[in-house]
Amino acid sequence: MASSLEIKKQLYAQCFDFVENRFNTIQNTINEIQESLTSETKSSAGDKHETGRAMLQLEREKAGNQLAEIQKIKESLSKIYISNTSEFIGLGSVVYTNKSNYFIAISAGELKVDNDVFYAISPHTPIGQLLMGNTVGNAVVFREQQFKIEKIF
C-alpha cells in the first residue's frame, strides 16, 4: 500500500493532469475560433457573414472566460504543498471518512489511487466547506448523511 505522501502526490498529479487537459482543450478551441474568424473575414460580405462573425466572437468570449476560470483553478492548485500535513482539514488535505474519501484541492471528480477512490473537491464546494477546519473524530452532516472523519493527512 502506498504511503500517505505517495497517495497525496498521485492525487495532486491527477488533478494537475485534469487542469492541463482542460487548459489545452480550451486553448485549442480558441485557436480554432481564431482560424474560423480569419477565414470568415476572407469570405463573402453581407448579413450571413456578419452573423457568422458575431457567433464566432461570442464563442471566443465564452472560451476566454473558460480560460480565465481554468487559470484560477491552476492558481489554487499551485497553492498546495504536498508535504504539508495538519490535524485540521485544509487545502491539500486527504480526508478519509466512513462514507467517502476526499482530496481537498480542486473540483476534478473521482480519482483512484491503488484501489481507493477519492473525490477531488474544492474547499468552496458545499461538502468542502463542511469539512474544512475539522479534525479526526468529528462528524459532518451533508444531504442528510453523517460523515465521520477517520483519517487526515
Contiguous low-pLDDT stretches (5 residues minimum) are: none
For the biggest sheet, the summary is:
6 strands, mixed
Major beta sheet, strand line-up = 3-4-2-1-6-5
Tally the helices: 3
What is the strand tally? 6
Which percent band covers the strand fraction?
Answer: 15-25%
- Shape, principal axes of CA atoms: elongated
Q: Could you report the average pLDDT, rounded to the nearest whole number?
A: 93
What's the alpha carbon Rg, rounded to whole Å?
A: 21 Å
- N/C terminus separation: 15 Å
Element order, helices and strands?
HHEEEEHEE
- The computed structural class is alpha+beta
Helix-residue proportion? 40-55%
Describe it.
- There is one protein chain.
- The chain starts with a helix and ends with a strand.
- Strands 3-4-2-1-6-5 form a 6-stranded mixed sheet.
- It has 153 residues and is of the alpha+beta class.
- A hairpin with a 2-residue loop joins strand 3 and strand 4.
- Helix 1 (4-42) packs antiparallel against helix 2.
- The longest helix has 39 residues, at 4-42.
- The mean pLDDT is 93.
- 50% of the residues lie in helices and 20% in strands.
- The protein is built from 3 helices and 6 strands; from the N terminus they run H-H-E-E-E-E-H-E-E.
- It has helices at 4-42, 47-78, 126-131; strands spanning 94-97, 101-104, 109-113, 116-121, 139-142, 145-152.
